[in-house]
Amino acid sequence: MEIILKQDIKSLGEKDDIVNVKPGYGRNYLIPQGFGALATPSAKKVLAENLKQAAFKQDKIKKDAEDIAARLTDVKLSIGAKAGETGKIFGAVNTIMIADALKQQGFDVDRRRITFETEPKFVGDYVANLNLHKEVKVKVPFAVVAE
């Protein structure tokens, strides 16, 4: 019995895979639980069209991410923070501050896509990793300066 999976199942396959299972497993577990649907010829055509459209959307998202990455190569950010005499920052420099600084430069990057190689605890130069797409990652240098 052929089943189209509607979500990832660890021992069986990933979402949108067409798998062969025993009839009882498909009829009594996968289909009633909503984990799969019967792989009829019309369902296979719909799946192929959906995968084609999803691939087109993913290509567009990846191209947009590559464009942003190309423009981000020359960007250097400066983040102001209150610091003591030893250079230790009071509070923290976080991803929201980096996202705001990027927005001021004309780049709209979600703060959840930003990580740090090392947490900024002192005044100095650091690097932020921007995960624009699962295949497109950019390192943006930024400086923490005392206000």
TrEMBL record:
Name a GO molecular-function annotation: structural constituent of ribosome
Give all residue intervals belonging to the Ribosomal protein L9 domain: 1-46
Question: Residues in domain Large ribosomal subunit protein bL9 C-terminal?
Answer: 64-146
Report if keyword Transmembrane is assigned. no
Task: Cite the entry's keywords alphabetically.
Answer: Ribonucleoprotein, Ribosomal protein, RNA-binding, rRNA-binding
Please give the SUPFAM superfamilies that the UniProt record associates with this protein: L9 N-domain-like (SSF55658), Ribosomal protein L9 C-domain (SSF55653)
The record ties this protein, via InterPro entries, to: Ribosomal_bL9, Ribosomal_bL9/RNase_H1_N, Ribosomal_bL9_bac/chp, Ribosomal_bL9_C, Ribosomal_bL9_C_sf, Ribosomal_bL9_N, Ribosomal_bL9_N_sf
Q: Name one GO cellular component term.
A: ribonucleoprotein complex
Q: Among the record's GO biological process terms, what is one? A: translation
Q: Which domain of life is it from?
A: Bacteria
- Identify its protein family: Belongs to the bacterial ribosomal protein bL9 family.
Function summary? Binds to the 23S rRNA.
UniProt-listed HAMAP family: Ribosomal_bL9
Q: What is this protein called?
A: Large ribosomal subunit protein bL9
